[in-house]
Predict the structure of Cupin domain-containing protein.
Amino acid sequence: MTALRHMATLSEESADGEFGTRCQRVFPLSLIDDETLGAMGCWLEPGRQTEPDQHDQREMVFVTGGRGTLVSGAESTPLRAGDVVFIEKNHEHVVHCTGEQLTWFSVYWPLKETR
């Protein structure tokens, strides 16, 4: 087994429609037997919002470009490149793109794919 592996190159062209946006999954991959997390890159067009999402996983969102807002119930936080936001499990959330295209990378755990 090698210590380093190139897992993916994030590209909107490689993304599929999910959650009302375009996402490219990086994990889970069949290369690793004991995966405990999932990850994906996402792209959201100006003026759009994701579908409401709620899952039994914690999620960390790393904003890489654009501007937006993340809303969960009565709470909201602005998003811009460089922001890192934690979402607790079992809390419905929606991402709104309020400026130029919003891009982010999400890591979620434990890995429990239900979709």
